[in-house]
């Protein structure tokens, strides 16, 4: 089967390659295992230098890769350029994380009778399964720390972002990384399944949906020696209190829900308003501001909301919208596809205030990926926290307004891994951990903490010579 990508800008094919077959996958992983054993013995300083060379290469070619991201996955230019900036910044952040969190060290002064030492051992071959929504930044956030820790990497980009994946591979090799240390495979889900089954795999790293994460978890049953790090989706709430001006609500909530066409795992899916004198004005302002957002393709300089990844994603989002209507939600801004492109979906808003508790629970259990927001009114702040937490997911959440005490109550009760105050749900800092709780992850936060799942700690007690003390004396 051939994988093809067609440009959102020109409509021309930009990638066409056969999927990697089973035999080729085996050969690639065998080479990676051998190369990884050599790479693990390369000095940390040399590994750091190679990673920095990659960052310098991306920086020198940022316009090229930014345009390719826009062309292949439909990101608007400002959004694609922001991803490239984050990818470049990931280099130094990962180096700093290794130095502070994963550096070999002696825990007792060398003049003591017994030294306590911790060192870190690579996990082997890391299989990185990348997403389409941040095809450079998110896999890079796993590849860079894996390489710094001394692992080989086999990368499978999303089948919807293979041109960017190929560019990344070339960038690493032109930056001096040995070819067998960083290899790639191309294909859809069956390609990943084949690779995961290979005995050479020391770790699997996924950014994707809950369903895919669960499938990989089941596939690795009985293989506890394989590290599994899952960065999964969310059903992210943003609570709006009475004190926030309507125009501020409109800006922060619309950005949370509709930036990147809603194709960020941290995008808000539910906006929960504490009902009061201002809630009508706040919701009206949100609807009006959202209706004014300009939708367009990457070549449209005025666009604020770009397309979904493809027409299939648009149809899937329409199915979600229809399901929400069936549950009793009322449209405040109906679903609409722009006639210019079947993947260009305008933002839509539904009101779930009057639906049943079972219906609200069903909404909280849903996962969707696109510019669709559900709003709900509740009677007070405690009810808002209860509504926000009514989901099996736990990735991101935000509170607008309120006091520091209210935010602390919110952070303790909402059950999310990224919890913001007076900012969008999509706000995340590179110097912090990034990951979700419950159905949004498996206790392996990425971001600054990604270095933690790239190696195993080995502890030692060291003496200059055999001890003359009798260890059996403790039983007498």
Automatic annotation (TrEMBL):
Alphabetic keyword roster: NAD, Oxidoreductase
Pathway field: Amino-acid degradation; L-proline degradation into L-glutamate; L-glutamate from L-proline: step 2/2
Enzyme class, broadest EC rank: oxidoreductase
One GO CC term on file: cytoplasmic side of plasma membrane
Gene Ontology terms describing biological process: L-proline catabolic process to L-glutamate
Catalytic reaction list: L-glutamate 5-semialdehyde + NAD(+) + H2O = L-glutamate + NADH + 2 H(+)
Limits of the Aldehyde dehydrogenase domain: 7-455
Gene3D superfamilies: Aldehyde Dehydrogenase, Chain A, domain 1, Aldehyde Dehydrogenase, Chain A, domain 2
Pfam family, one: Aldedh
Single GO term (MF): L-glutamate gamma-semialdehyde dehydrogenase activity
InterPro entries: Ald_DH/histidinol_DH (IPR016161), Ald_DH_C (IPR016163), Ald_DH_CS_CYS (IPR016160), Ald_DH_CS_GLU (IPR029510), Ald_DH_N (IPR016162), Aldehyde_DH_dom (IPR015590), Proline_metab_enzyme (IPR050485)
Active-site residue list: 231
Documented EC number(s): 1.2.1.88
Statement: the UniProt record of this protein carries the keyword Oxidoreductase: yes
Protein's name in the database: L-glutamate gamma-semialdehyde dehydrogenase
Originating species: Rubripirellula tenax
């Amino acid at each position: 089967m051939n994988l093809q990508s067609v440009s959102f800008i020109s409509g021309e094919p930009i990638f066409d390659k056969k999927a990697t077959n089973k035999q080729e996958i085996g050969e690639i992983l065998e080479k990676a295992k051998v190369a990884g054993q050599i790479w693990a013995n390369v000095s940390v300083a040399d590994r750091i230098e190679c990673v920095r060379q990659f960052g310098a290469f991306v920086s020198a070619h940022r316009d090229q890769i930014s345009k390719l991201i826009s062309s292949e996955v439909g990101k608007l230019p400002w959004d694609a350029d922001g991803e490239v900036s984050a990818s470049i910044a990931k280099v130094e952040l990962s180096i700093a994380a290794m130095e502070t969190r994963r550096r070999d060290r002696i825990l007792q002064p060398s003049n003591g009778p017994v030294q306590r030492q911790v060192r870190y051992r690579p996990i082997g071959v890391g299989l990185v399964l990348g997403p389409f929504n941040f095809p450079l930044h998110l896999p890079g956030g796993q590849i860079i720390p894996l390489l710094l820790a001394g692992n080989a990497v086999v990368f499978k980009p999303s089948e919807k972002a293979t041109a960017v994946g190929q560019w990344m591979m070339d960038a690493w090799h032109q930056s001096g990384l040995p070819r067998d240390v960083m290899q790639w495979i191309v294909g859809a889900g069956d390609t990943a399944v084949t690779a995961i089954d290979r005995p050479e795999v020391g770790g699997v790293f996924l950014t994707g949906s809950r369903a895919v994460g669960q499938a990989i978890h089941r596939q690795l049953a009985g293989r506890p020696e394989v590290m599994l790090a899952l960065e999964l989706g969310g059903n992210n709430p943003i609570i709006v209190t009475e004190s926030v001006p309507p125009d501020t609500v409109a800006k922060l909530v619309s950005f949370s829900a509709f930036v990147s066409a809603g194709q960020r795992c941290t995008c808000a899916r539910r906006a929960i308003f504490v009902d009061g004198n201002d809630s009508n004005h706040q919701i009206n302002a949100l609807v009006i501001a959202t209706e004014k957002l300009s939708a367009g393709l990457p070549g449209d300089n005025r666009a604020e909301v770009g397309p979904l990844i493809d027409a299939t994603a648009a149809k899937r989002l329409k199915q979600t919208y229809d399901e929400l209507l069936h549950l009793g939600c009322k449209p405040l801004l109906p679903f609409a596809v722009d006639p210019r492109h079947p993947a260009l979906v305008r933002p839509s808003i539904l009101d779930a205030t009057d639906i049943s508790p079972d219906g609200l629970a069903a909404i909280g259990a849903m996962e969707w990926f696109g510019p669709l927001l559900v709003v709900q009114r509740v009677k007070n702040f405690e009810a808002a926290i209860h509504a926000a937490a009514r989901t099996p997911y736990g990735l991101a959440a935000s509170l607008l307004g309120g006091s520091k005490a209210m935010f602390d109550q919110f952070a303790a009760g909402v059950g999310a891994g990224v919890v913001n105050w007076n900012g969008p749900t999509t706000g995340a800092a590179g110097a912090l951990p990034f990951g979700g709780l419950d159905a949004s992850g498996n206790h392996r936060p990425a971001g600054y903490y990604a270095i933690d799942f790239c190696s195993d700690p080995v502890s030692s007690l060291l003496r200059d010579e055999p001890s003359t003390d009798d260890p059996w004396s403790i039983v007498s």
